[in-house]
Amino acid sequence: MKGFGEIDKPKKIINNFDDNQILNEAIKYHCEGNILQAGKLYQLLINKGSKNSIAFTNFGLILINSGKKEEAEILIRKAIELNPKDSAAYSNLGGILKDLGKLKEAEIFTRKAIELNPKDSIAYSNLGGILQDLGKIKEAEIFTRQAIELNPKLAEAYSNLGGILNDNENLKEAEIFTRQAIELNPKFAKAYSNLGGILRQLGNLKEAEIITLKAVELNPNFANGYSNLGLIFNELGNLKQAEIFARKAIELNPNFAKAYYSLSKIEAITEKDWEKYLFTQDILKNQKDIDKIDIYFARANILERQSNYMQSANMLKEANTLNRKLYGTNFIRIKNKLQYYYKISQKIKSKQKLHENLLKSIFIVGLPRSGKTITESILSRNKALLKCGEDKALSIAVDKYLNQKGTSNQQDLYQIYIENISKKISHESYICSTNPSNYLFTGLIASQIPNSKVIYCFRNPLDHIKEMYSHNINNKFTFRTSIIESASILLSINELMEIYKSTFNSKIYFLNYDELVVNPKREIKSLLSWLGWEYEKNYLYPQLDPTTVNRTGNLSEFINKKYLNSWKNYKELLQPAFELISRNEKYRHLIS
């Protein structure tokens, strides 16, 4: 173990001290913030063969803050060996193991800390963070809320809870808890960065930029803050700044996977010195599985641009295999939900009467990568439309609506939906939502929400399956990690939407993404006519979301045709879907 140098006090004085005196002197320095001198004394004790666990624990903490986590792990394990009842040591070891990507072991040691000290709020908060990384979001939320209950002033727990709620797509509550973390600790750089990320997802890009700049101002060496700034500038369409901040993150942390993934999505980059290291084995060392996923997807993005489709497919397999290992699959749950909500919509009597004074609700439904976002961008050229994006208001409303039996003052689905819209409604006449889960509720939308319209986006199923498989999904729609499961879900949804359309023909519109990008004027005119809107030329030039366009830096370009029939480059990868697709007469021609 590398030394911390000479001790300030004369050696003969130190040599006359017994171990307890040296430890007290070290703790005194530690409390005063003189970490260098404290470290020297802890190290002296350890070198002398001390059996005092406090020396090992405290020196371990110093090494953690110095970035020497492997050395810290050795010391904390020794501290536990010397004092198996030291709950703080177990918690500290859990934190080290989490940072080293050893999540299962981290969970075991942190749970042991809680077992030894059931009132250790920090251990509860740490366990919440570990469970979050393991994809156990619900359990992570429970333990983090317990941490706050035990210590209502623990800023770290509020910040962690904000991150967990963010992962669960509960953005408004995530914002509230993260702001509370900042209120408790106004110099908490990580919380500012997390808040910036939440605001970015809420569409408040300018405030997100200001808040995240505050994070790196507080901690100029905060790689994650710079990476988040890169994501914000990416969505603002400023690709040069996005590249600069992602590169800064890598400069501070050469193994920072998320920054490499961000850079891999920007096609306009000319200087690609970082790519070489991305493809080395060194970058994978000591990475958590969740970060390896980013690395494999980044490699796949680059290999595809190089037309190296075979190796790109291999990287996609690696990424999706790891994702499935972490998060499992929601295939059966989605299948069951499709049938569950279909049966409910069949039982509930339809509301036939239209209401003149109600807002008109437009739901653009379909699986991810089906063209929902671009469709919303087109429609948002109408200034009377409120663009709500992936607002969760409908899923919240459906749960409340179906669980209010026996209660007084029962509300209809429309009322509950409007109450839960996260954006402020002012002069608009139309509300538009693109949440991917809304396809589950098509029957309820059509039968229970007056003045509602459903636009179902679909595309060539083989292109669609490939696009879903090649996008970084974390814990969302995890059936996408399987080619065969994606094909099965896709065909089930298509079949169900056909049934809904036969029942609610005037309320459901089928929008073919492929035809939209090939002949935008014709398809947009048709869509607007169905909505009862007048066609104007500006609908042809929507302000596209950065996630929908080729990342060349031109946000004014219409969605390109680049990915039409891209499945043909991945025939071997998509082979498991061919048999299912070939059974469907509508799509059989694609693989003949």
3D architecture notes:
The chain has a domain at 358-591: Rossmann fold (3-Layer(aba) Sandwich). The longest helix has 21 residues, at 483-503. Helix 2 (19-32) packs antiparallel against helix 3, helix 20 packs parallel to helix 24 (442-448) and helix 25 (461-469) packs across helix 29 (571-583). Helices cover 60% and strands 4% of the residues. Strands 2-3-1-4-5 form a five-stranded parallel beta sheet, with helices on both faces. It is built from 29 helices and five strands. It has 592 residues and is mainly alpha-helical. The radius of gyration is 27 Å and the shape is globular. It has helices at residues 11-16, 19-32, 35-47, 53-65, 69-82, 87-99, 103-116, 121-133, 137-150, 155-167, 171-184, 189-201, 205-218, 223-235, 239-252, 257-264, 274-278, 289-305, 309-327, 331-347, 372-379, 393-402, 413-419, 442-448, 461-469, 483-503, 513-518, 520-531, 571-583; strands at residues 360-365, 385-387, 430-433, 452-458, 508-512.
What descriptors fit this protein?
592 residues, Rossmann fold, mainly alpha, 60% helix, globular
